[in-house]
Amino acid sequence: DLQIFFGEVLKIEFDALLPDEINSGLNISIFDSENRLISLYSTNPHDGVVLPKGVRKKIQFILEPCLLAPGKYSIDISLTEPEVRIIEEAPQAFFFEVLEKKLGGVWPYRKEYGTSYLPHSWRIY
Fold first, then answer.
1. Of 14, 37, 41, 75, whose CB is crowded by the most CB atoms within 10 A?
2. pTM score
3. What DSSP assignment string belongs to 68-81?
4. Average pLDDT of 6-26?
5. How many percent of the chain have pLDDT more than 70?
6. What whole-number distance in Å separates Cα of residue 110 and Cα of residue 116?
């Protein structure tokens, strides 16, 4: 299992043989340790990434920074014909753990504060 600190880069790499007869997409689903869906990422249509047809490619999924609360997670990968069908699924293809780390404040972010820490800013005027 991969371990990263809260706020660091999460990078997952895998090989994919992409179909030649249809447009395809890749879905990455992140689940927490209680198997609740935290996030779904999709090349097409959500992120507008068009995959080439009929080739084997290395695919990298990068979450930078990874602001998931400390804890254990799993990743499902699926190859789809977008908005039509799932071609192939790899449930729990990867496992990773996010470890506590301070981001500049006094306390490290902990799971009891919520499942994720979204980028934000403060204005005081």
1. 75
2. 0.87
3. BPSEEEEEEEEEEE
4. 91
5. 99
6. 9
